[in-house]
Specification:
- With about 425 residues, the protein is mostly helical.
- The protein has 10 helices and no strands.
- It has helices at about 10-75, 80-100, 100-105, 110-135, 150-165, 180-210, 215-245, 250-280, 290-370, 385-420.
- The two termini are about 65 Å apart.
- The model has no long low-confidence stretch (mean pLDDT about 85).
């Protein structure tokens, strides 16, 4: 195999080019990574905003479902002021959910289509149930279709849960998700589930306080099951505060503590007393409807506060990550510009101080070898290559002087021989 022979100048250029390309590649790789991180953070922040709107909408819808269930349990038509309150809850729920579409449009994501399809489907199902509920609430209990007092609330519970679970299409997942982000998402879910399932239990207890009657065994079993599901959130909140407490925002920790102290603290004693009385034929509830509803609302509001606080912190967390990634991206762009400027300067410097003198030395040596001694060897500087070129020029002058002297001697000898002859 023939050997590839490279000149010294070519070798120096090649080595320099490889080094500069590697340096530029490293800088470009950093810029690409930071750009991707910025995009990921932007998508995550947008998803957090969408999920926050979804949580707020379903929380308001949960209260709407509770009012609907209470109204269907009453013997008379559901008129003002309760019907006005129900309409207001629907407006609030729709207002939050209507914010989702603009958020989805602002940051395109491949999961948006699937999420939007589920969202629209379940919202349509809720609208159908609202129309059915309005028809039933508008008349007295004896004029309603059989079983609507159970079927409509049950269907609303299911649709609310499915509506909220549709957000899993956008949830940020993966092994590389920071623990703080995962903790915030878990606290959002714990707060929401405490409000949702605690609210379901509260509805049965509120109806019992309003009517003064016992709760049917099946309904009581469901109320206890909902309480157990809500209690699972208590254990999750306690675990997250113990493990991630130092890394959580103060507002989130304060909200989590309020849930533990209120809903799972003082209110837990109250609801336990209601559940004990609810199975008796003639229950003696510790509070009337107004007092119980106020106390339960205050307790459930702490779960709502945790949901909103953790959701807001999640948005802020991803916004901060996006801002940090943007700074890194800009810094990398500046780094690339600096690297390119340094590369151009280094290339020019090497060409001027190393490559050009080497080529000049090669050219001058070739001329000297051919006894072309009239062209001076240009040189500059006192470095090794400058001294080398100066030595070549000194050698050129010395050789030229010797040749001139030899020619003069030869000419003189010729004249002497001519004179003797």
């Amino acid at each position: 195999m023939a050997k590839i022979r490279l000149s010294t100048a070519t070798t120096i250029r090649a080595v320099l080019a490889v080094f500069l390309v590697a340096l530029a590649g490293f800088s470009i790789r950093g810029a690409v990574d930071s750009f991707r991180a910025m995009q990921d953070a932007e998508r995550s922040a947008n998803a957090a905003r969408v999920l926050a709107a979804l949580d707020k909408g379903t929380v308001e819808m949960s209260f709407e479902r509770s009012l609907t269930q209470v109204g269907l349990a009453l013997p008379d038509a559901f008129g003002p002021p309760f019907s006005d309150l129900l309409a207001e809850q629907r407006r609030k729920a729709n207002e939050h959910l209507d914010r989702i579409d603009p958020l989805l449009s602002s940051v395109p994501n491949q999961n948006h289509a699937a999420f939007k399809d589920l969202l629209d489907r379940h919202r349509e199902a809720v609208e159908a149930l609202r129309r059915e509920a309005d028809a039933a609430l508008g008349v007295a209990a004896d004029a309603r279709a059989l079983g609507v007092a159970e079927t409509i609330p049950t269907a609303l519970k299911q649709e609310i849960l499915l509506l909220r679970e549709s957000g899993q299409k956008l949830a940020v997942t993966g092994a590389d998700i920071p623990s703080e982000a995962m903790a915030l998402a878990s606290l959002v879910d714990a707060g929401w589930r405490s409000r949702e399932f605690g609210g379901r239990e509260r509805t049965y207890l509120a109806i019992a306080a309003l009517t003064g009657s016992a709760i049917a065994p099946e309904a009581l079993a469901e109320a206890r099951l909902n309480a157990d599901i809500a209690t699972e959130s208590k254990r999750r909140i306690e675990r997250l505060l113990a493990i991630q407490g130092d890394g959580l925002p103060e507002a989130v920790k304060a909200s989590a503590s309020k849930v533990l102290d209120s809903y799972f603290g003082s209110y837990d004693t109250l609801r336990t007393g209601f559940l004990e009385e609810a199975s008796k034929p003639t229950p003696a509830y510790p509070l009337g409807f107004d007092e119980y509803f106020a106390a339960s609302s205050a307790a459930l509001d702490t779960a709502v506060e945790l949901t909103y606080a953790a959701g807001l912190a999640s948005v802020a967390y991803w916004d901060e990550r996006q801002a940090s990634a943007r700074k890194h991206f800009i810094a990398n762009l500046i780094g690339i510009a600096v690297v390119l400027a340094l590369a151009a300067f280094a290339w020019m410097l090497v060409e001027r101080r190393i490559v050009k003198p080497i080529l000049q030395a090669q050219l001058s040596a070739s001329r000297i070898a051919k006894l072309d001694l009239d062209s001076p060897v240009p040189y500059r500087g006192e470095d090794e290559l400058g001294l080398l070129l100066k030595s070549l020029d000194d050698m050129r002058r010395d050789l030229r002087s010797r040749i001139v002297a030899e020619r003069e001697v030869a000419a003189e000898n010729s004249r002497v021989r001519y004179a003797l002859d």
